[in-house]
Amino acid sequence: MTGAAPGRVGGRARRGPRRKAARRPVRTATALPVLSTRRWAVLGTMAVVTVVVCLVFFTPVLGVRAIEVTGVQGLTPDEVRAAAAVESGTPLVRVDTDEVATRIRQLPRVGTVEVRRSFPGTLEVAITERTPVAVVVAHDGAHLLDAAAVDYGVLKAPPAGLPTLDSGGEQATRGAVTVLAAIPPQLSKQVVSVTARTPSDIRLNLADGRAVKWGDSDNTRRKSAVLAALLSQEGKTFDVAAPDFPTIS
Prior knowledge:
By secondary structure, the protein is of the alpha+beta class. It contains six helices and 14 strands. It folds into two domains: about 60-130, membrane protein fhac (Ubiquitin-like (UB roll)); about 135-249, Rossmann fold (3-Layer(aba) Sandwich), CATH 3.40.50. The strands form four sheets. The protein has a six-stranded mixed beta sheet with strand order 9-10-11-12-13-14, covered by helices on one side.
C-alpha cells in the first residue's frame, strides 16, 4: 500500500499558514484635485492680500483727498492745511499724524491739535486756539497773551473786553495772566487793566475806577471770595494781598 505523500493529508496538499498581504494606501480619484484646489486657494488669497497691501500703502487709491479743519477762529483752514504739509494723494495709512500735529502746533495761535485719519481719503484736524486773557500794547500793535503768557498774535488795536497789561518783566507777566485766567467771570468782566511791577505786586483796575491790590498769584480763590464781599462796600482801593486781613481805603 502506497503511503500518502509527505505534506498531503487525505490526498490534498498541506498548505502552510496564509500570509496577510500588506495594505497599500488607497488614493481616491478626488484626492489630487482637492489638494490642487487648496493650493490654488492659498496662492489666490496671498495674491489678493498682496494687491490690497500695495493699493493701500503704495498707491493713491486710498490717498489723502481732503483735509478737514475744525475749531479755527483767528486762523483760516488754509493756514492750517499749509502747516500740515500733507501732499494730496499720500496714502492715508502712511501719514504720521503725530508729525502732522507737531507741524500744525508751530502756528502761534494753536493751543491744542488732534489729527485723525478718516477713510477712505480724509485727514481730520481739530484745532483749539489759544484764548487771550490780556493784551500788551506795543509800538507794533496789540499783543495777545494767553494764560501761559504766550504772545501768540498781534492786532492793530486792543480788542474790546480784554484788559491791557503793563508789566515789569516776564515773571510779573506770568503772575498777572495767571490771576486773570483764574478769577471768576463776574470779576474778570470788571477788569479793564492790570499793573504788575513785580510778581508780588499785581493790581487790578476796575471799570468803575476802583483798584484792587492783589499781591502775588497765590490764593486766587480765597482772594476772589474776599474781594466779592468787599466790593459791596464804599472805597477806592481794596487790598486783598493778605486775604485774611483785607483793607479798604
